[in-house]
Design brief:
Blueprint lengths: L1 H31 L13 E7 L6 H9 L8 E7 L6 H6 L5 E5 L5 H10 L5 E6 L3 E2 L3 H6 L7 E10 L8 H18 L10 E4 L12 H11 L3 E12 L5 H21 L8 H15 L1 H14 L5 H18 L3 H23 L17
Parallel strand pairs: 1-2, 1-4, 2-3, 6-8
Antiparallel strand pairs: 4-7, 5-8, 6-7
Helix pairs in contact: 1-6, 1-9, 1-10, 8-12, 10-12, 11-12
């Protein structure tokens, strides 16, 4: 019985910490002792790399958007790194030559294509974006100003999710995530980025395992090297989220497979300053383990239900959450599906590992309204 109660309190406490207490503590500490970034208006040479696989539906819009950025044309190079696209992507990109350079790779995944593009360019800063994103005209200028601070190795912009066409509640979660990201950045360094808009000082760029992805691996690798990875909320990119909670669940399963690979094989908790160690453990490791924690909490709540009102209340709360998800209450369904995705992703990873490539669903061209 003592062991069950210990598991109950550890799992429940870890869930409260990762979802509520840690974000609140990080926000408070960021206000009390912020670490400033000495940003300044600078214009270094920049290469913007768009990794693409069969993006004929939107690659022209993406390149038109990048060519319209408020940044000196003579200091900006645009590269499309194709991961062996088999549709009309190459043909469409060729129409933008010589302003846009096309690098065609063998099928090896997004990161492998990005690595080659970095090797074949020479700018001071390398910036990255997805093919389905749209940048605000001043996004690049606002992003690179952070590199005036010699401690900054990585800067991630703000991804703005436009209103979903269906039931997806990712936008609500994303606002919660960005609040945490801003607090972590003020404290020192963020624990994760996003693929829509980020940049790295070339001298700090690291070629990571193609199965890992940059979003999670680059920030902590920068900190391990004694550098900073920060968030620049003024540099905005725009994307449409997937339409439903169910489609978001499938996307999260793919994403969490890579997260488990990095968490278990990427040495992400080694050689970190104590405060950043706590941030990575709290925001990333425990968050990815939330499915395991919920299963343990539910199991121990059932086993201890006769031990007092507190265990009864905990069980009732969990059953109410599951019932709300089952009948389609938006945020409850989103939370349960995403939490379940962490478990499915872990099972997939343990069973077959994680591939460097995947085939995305067919996209329809969308323009921001």
């Amino acid at each position: 019985m003592i062991a069950l109660k210990t598991l109950f309190w550890l799992s429940g406490g870890a869930l409260v910490w990762t979802h509520a207490a840690y974000p609140a503590a990080a926000s408070l500490l960021a206000r009390l002792r912020p670490r400033r970034v000495r940003a300044a208006a600078i214009e270094p040479t920049v290469t913007v790399i768009v990794a693409a696989y069969n993006e004929e539906a939107m690659i022209e819009r993406r390149l038109e958007n990048l060519l319209a950025l408020d940044y000196p044309a003579e200091k900006l190079e645009l590269v499309v790194a194709s991961d062996a696209s088999s549709d009309r992507t190459h043909e469409l990109v060729a129409r933008f030559a010589p302003r846009v350079k096309l690098i065609v790779n063998e099928r090896g995944g997004k990161v492998a294509a990005q690595n080659r593009a970095v090797r074949e360019t020479e700018s001071e800063i390398v910036a990255f974006s997805d093919a389905n994103a749209t940048w605000a005209p001043d996004a690049l200028r606002l992003l690179v100003r952070n590199f005036a601070d010699p401690q900054i190795a990585y800067a991630c912009g703000r991804l703005v999710l436009e209103t979903a066409e269906g039931s997806n509640r990712e936008g609500l979660y994303w606002r919660y995530e960005l609040h945490q990201r801003a607090a972590e950045s003020r404290l020192g360094s963020i624990t994760g980025g996003n693929g829509s808009i980020y940049a790295v000082r070339r001298s700090d760029y690291i070629e990571v395992d193609p199965k890992w992805g940059h979003d999670l691996s680059l920030p902590y690798r920068m900190v391990q090297a004694g550098r900073r990875a920060i968030y620049e909320p003024a540099a905005r990119a725009f994307e449409k989220p997937t339409p439903t909670n169910e489609t978001e669940y499938r996307r999260k399963v793919r994403m969490f497979e890579h997260c488990w690979e990095i968490a278990l094989r990427g040495s992400m908790l080694r050689r970190l300053p104590p405060s950043y160690f706590v941030a990575v453990l709290s925001h990333r490791v425990l968050r990815y383990g939330s499915g395991i924690l919920h299963v343990v909490l539910l199991g121990t709540s059932v086993a201890l239900v006769r031990e007092g009102w507190l265990y009864q209340l905990a069980l009732a709360g969990q059953l109410l959450l599951l019932a709300a998800a089952a009948v389609g209450v938006g945020i409850a369904r989103y939370y349960v599906l995403v939490t379940w995705a962490t478990l499915v992703a872990l099972a997939n990873y343990l069973r077959r590992g994680v591939p460097a490539t995947w085939t995305p669903p067919r996209r329809k061209e969308t323009r921001p309204g």
